[in-house]
Amino acid sequence: MASTNDLKNGMVLKLDGGQLWSVVEFQHVKPGKGPAFVRTKLKHVLSGKVVDKTFNAGTKVETATIDRRDMQFSYMDGEYFVFMDMQTYDQLMVDKKAVGDAANFLIEGFTASVAQHEGEVLYVELPAAVELVIEHTDPGVQGDRSTGGTKPARLETGHEIQVPLFVTTGEKIKVDTRTSDYLGRVNS
């Protein structure tokens, strides 16, 4: 348990019957008249939904302990992604639903942050950008190069993104894991 006076960004609270909410931002407000209160912006850990919630100052709130560990993606086992803890070498099977969009950028050997609460995997978080090889893309047409257009390209993970016309099959590129945007070529 913690008081609303102790809130910090990133802290995870257990509210509304055990649902986990992460504190995005908070503000202590002391109006001229009436009691002080705390205005917060909370993000649901599983769904990502963001809500505004106000608490009276000093109210007790239940906190949740989230265990975030860097783990290495090993392989797919049916519908499960198998991650290995690099310190204990324990293997963890993570459901496809918990991996979410990170699955579009995972290849063997990648390190991801796996967040757990009471043994249950909540989500898998990748770095903001990863380097992947383009498995296939059509060649750019000679006259199109100056227009700054884009074309579809399939990454080595099977995920398809838009890349500039000058990018070719076999090139290593940097991709934003949050938006699937092309960030640039990687020089070997």
Please give a structural write-up:
It is a single chain. The chain is mainly beta. The chain folds into three domains: 54 residues, SH3 type barrels (Roll); 58 residues, OB fold (Dihydrolipoamide Acetyltransferase, E2P), CATH 2.40.50.140; 56 residues, OB fold (Dihydrolipoamide Acetyltransferase, E2P) (Beta Barrel), CATH 2.40.50. The protein is 2% helix and 53% strand. The protein has one helix and 16 strands. The strands form three sheets. The chain has a six-stranded antiparallel β-sheet with strand order 1-6-2-3-4-5, with no helix packed on it. The chain has a five-stranded antiparallel β-sheet with strand order 9-8-7-10-11. A hairpin with a 2-residue loop joins β7 and β8. The termini are far apart. It is found in: Cytoplasm. One of its GO terms (cellular component) is cytosol.
Report the β-strand fraction as a percent range: over 45%
User: CATH H-level name of the largest domain... which superfamily?
Assistant: Nucleic acid-binding proteins
The stretches of 5 or more residues where confidence is low (pLDDT under 50) are: none
Secondary structure category: mainly beta
Secondary structure elements and their pairing?
Elements: E1 2-3, E2 12-15, E3 19-29, E4 37-44, E5 50-56, E6 60-63, E7 67-77, E8 80-85, E9 91-95, H1 96-99, E10 111-117, E11 120-125, E12 129-137, E13 150-155, E14 160-164, E15 172-176, E16 182-185
Antiparallel strand pairs: 1-6, 2-3, 2-6, 3-4, 4-5, 7-8, 7-10, 8-9, 10-11, 12-13, 12-15, 13-14, 15-16
